[in-house]
Design goal:
Mean pLDDT: 81
Oligomer: single chain
CATH architecture of the largest domain: Roll
Radius of gyration: 20 Å
Number of strands: 13
CATH superfamily of the largest domain: CBS-domain
Structural class: alpha/beta
Shape: flat
Strand content: 15-25%
Distance between the termini: 16 Å
Length: about 290
């Protein structure tokens, strides 16, 4: 049986499945997965413009350009830490500088770079300048899923699960997300049973950005001073922001099954259940980390 994988563990390359597939995995190159299905935006555009495109395209990360030069990426999650005025703040405030790929980069190396960059998208450059396209984490784990054969969900799950009670205030959720490096928090009831899931994006779209209002015939976004008091919103129960449609798997479910669920439903996290209660979580990053060391 494969060894249990912790966040910083090394995989035993003598495990038959990985030993036999190692050569093929190294030979596979990123050019096989380049896609044009991504958002690009100039660093001097406003956050509100980007959010409109995020919503329309149903994506969470974008490539940031300075003219035609790629300068990094930006994500919805990065914007959570700012009390922003979406019509005024520029994209460049939130740029994350990541390693760029070329078409000859191996898929193994690509997995490594995504783990290090903590993102789900990496640009592929032509002649180290022009963006040829991007590689998406979901396409990576879909292509490499067969290398997870023989592993169970419990082999790579994170057991240091951060949970919250559905009566807890949204302010606590924001602080929890910031200080625990998590993107999703399972919400439980008094008995400990799972009742929902709250994500960074849920909070960002429903809490940090506010509906437009009329003021002297003009529409104003992002300025909450005249509309609602922020401290009152911070006290609202987290159940108002959680999603009740949560995908769960069991500890003994095959990791390939977990990957298929995440890819088919475009999920970044899956909750692991034990005795009908949340016991752990698997993220796309955990799966990329697994593939990065084979």
């Amino acid at each position: 049986m494969p060894k249990k994988i912790c966040r910083h563990a090394q995989i035993d390359l003598k495990t038959p499945i990985f030993y036999l597939s190692k050569k093929r995995l190294i030979l596979m190159q990123v050019m096989e997965l380049i896609t044009q299905d991504y958002i690009s935006i100039d660093q001097n555009e406003t956050v509100s413009r980007l959010f409109g495109r995020f919503i329309t395209r149903k994506q969470k990360e974008a490539v940031v350009l300075d003219g035609k030069k790629c300068v990094g990426i930006v994500s919805k999650k990065a914007m959570l830490d700012s009390r922003l005025k979406a019509d005024e703040v520029k994209i460049k405030k939130f740029i994350k500088h990541v390693n760029k790929l070329d078409k000859g980069t191996s898929l193994k190396k690509t997995c490594e770079q995504m783990v290090v960059s903590d993102c789900h998208i990496l640009p592929v450059l032509y002649d180290d300048k022009r963006v040829e396209g991007v590689v998406l984490a979901k396409d990576l784990i879909r292509r490499l899923r067969k290398h997870a054969i023989g592993y169970k969900a419990k082999d790579i799950e994170r057991t240091n699960l951060v949970k919250m009670d559905y009566h807890d205030p949204v302010g606590k959720a924001i602080n929890t997300i910031r200080h625990n490096d998590v993107s999703h928090i399972p919400i439980i009831e008094l008995s400990g049973h799972l009742v929902g899931l709250v994500s960074t994006i849920d909070i960002l779209e429903k809490f940090m950005l506010f509906p437009a209002k009329r003021e002297g015939g003009k529409r104003v976004r992002g300025d909450i001073s005249d509309s609602v008091k922020q401290h009152d919103l911070m006290k609202m129960p987290i159940q108002n922001y959680m999603s009740k449609n949560v995908e769960v798997v069991k500890e003994d479910d095959d990791l390939v099954k977990v990957i298929d669920i995440m890819v088919d439903k475009n999920l970044s996290d899956v909750v692991i259940m034990k005795d009908e209660k949340p016991a752990g979580i698997i993220t796309v990053k955990d799966i990329l980390r697994l593939f990065s060391v084979v």
